[in-house]
Amino acid sequence: MIMDLTQGSIEEKNSRAKKMMLYFGIGSLIMSFAGLTSAFIVSSSRPDWSENLRLPNIFFTSVFIIIVSSITFIIAKRALSKGNRQATTLFLVLTFILGSVFIYVQLLGFGELMAEGFYLTGPTSDPKASYIFLIAFVHILHVIAGLICLLVVIYNHFKQKYSPKAMLGFELAGTFWHFVDALWIYLFLFLYFMK
Questions:
Q1: How far apart are CA 66 and CA 58, in angstroms?
Q2: What is the DSSP letter of 46?
Q3: In which element (H, E) is residue 140 found?
Q4: 3-state class (DSSP) for residue 166
Q5: Are the beta carbons of 53 and 118 closer than 8 angstroms?
Q6: How far apart are CA 168 and CA 179, in angstroms?
Q7: Cβ atoms of 169 and 161 closer than 8 Å
Q8: Mean local confidence (pLDDT), 25-54
Q9: Are 79 and 157 in contact (CB under 8 A)?
């Protein structure tokens, strides 16, 4: 049975439209990062490709932080669905803090790469290092977008715009946040195992 997307109340149509827009956006991000990782694979056959470059160990920490941030968002959503506003606030703020710490840890990783003599550009740059910087930086930009979404959710939560029966904005932000988190796990594993 095919679902008719034009059926339902205006609120239901609005909800479906917003979810579809988010899914299209996520689809375009997947294609963008697929292009970046494909370019990484193609470029790895270059003669100047560094075989001895390893991801800084601090990037392992960033994976842990991003996973915990997804868990705290899930807990916040469960608290909201039970009408527990205080716990919702606590776990939303924790998610925001963890997302901010993730960016800080990524920047520390960049610092470690530069301390080892690897740069994005310049005479001492390395193609592999340039890809690592580029891929991680573009991902950071999307984490920043996720943090902005979280700020909007926190603001709307304080304005009591969400309830167990009205969670659309909350759910959309959560979907994007979990996508960005899963994307980093994929990128980390890709960069770690691809030589």
A1: 13
A2: S
A3: helix 127-158
A4: strand
A5: yes
A6: 17
A7: yes
A8: 92
A9: no
Statement: residue 7 has pLDDT above 70:
no
Q: Is the pLDDT of residue 98 over 60?
A: yes
Q: CA–CA separation, 136 vs 96, rounded Å?
A: 19
Distance of alpha carbon 26 from the chain centroid? 11
**Which residue's entry shows tokens 């959560």?**
174
Backbone φ and ψ of 166, nearest 5°: -135, 85
Confidence of residue 4 (pLDDT cuts 50, 70, 90): low
d(CA 187, CA 98): 19
Residues 48-59 have a mean pLDDT of 88
In this predicted structure, what is the pLDDT of residue 16?
86
Q: Is 163 helix (H, G, I), strand (E, B) or coil?
A: strand
Compute the radius of gyration of the chain from its Cα atoms. 20
Tell me which residue has tokens 């990037």: 59
Closest CA to 56 of 97, 117, 98: 117
CB crowding 79-96: b at 16 or more within 10 Å, else e: bbeeeeeeebbebbebbb
What is the rounded CA–CA span in Å between residue 152 and residue 132? Answer: 30
Could you give all domains of the chain from N- to C-terminal order, each with its CATH number?
11-46+59-193 (1.20.120.80)
The rounded mean pLDDT for the chain is 91
pTM above 0.85, yes or no: yes
Over 60: is that where the pLDDT of 5 sits? no
